[in-house]
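Could you help me review a protein record that somebody else here produced? This is what I was given.
***
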Amino acid sequence: MPQTDPFQRLREFCLALPEATEKPFGGHTTPSFRVRDKMFAMGAEGDGRISVWCKAPPGAQEVLVGADPDRFFRPPYVGKDGWVGVRLDVPVNWAVVSDLVQDSYRMTAPKRLVAQLDGTTRVVTNSQ
C-alpha cells in the first residue's frame, strides 16, 4: 500500500542513516534532517510544491534540473550552493531520492559515520 505522506517516507530512510536526527528548522513545519547538527536534507512546501532539498555533488544540480525540470529544481536560498530540490508531489522514484539524500549525508557527515554507512546496504528501494 503506497504511503500518502511523502515526508513520512523521507523520514524513514533519513533517520535510518547513522546518527541522523530530525530537528525543526526555523518556524517551518516540514522536517529537516541533520547529522551532528549539520543539515543534510530538508522537506519544503510552497509554490504548490512538496519537495526535499539536499546537498548535491558539484555539477549534479545542473545535470538533474536540465534532464528533468518537472522533477528537479534549484531551490531558493541554498540552490546557489549546489543543493538540489526534488519534487515529492509527482510520482517519486524513491531509489533516486534515497541516493541523493545519502550523497548529501556523505557530504555532511564525519568520515567515521560515512564509513559506517558504506558498510551497510542501501536504505531504500523504489518499491511503493
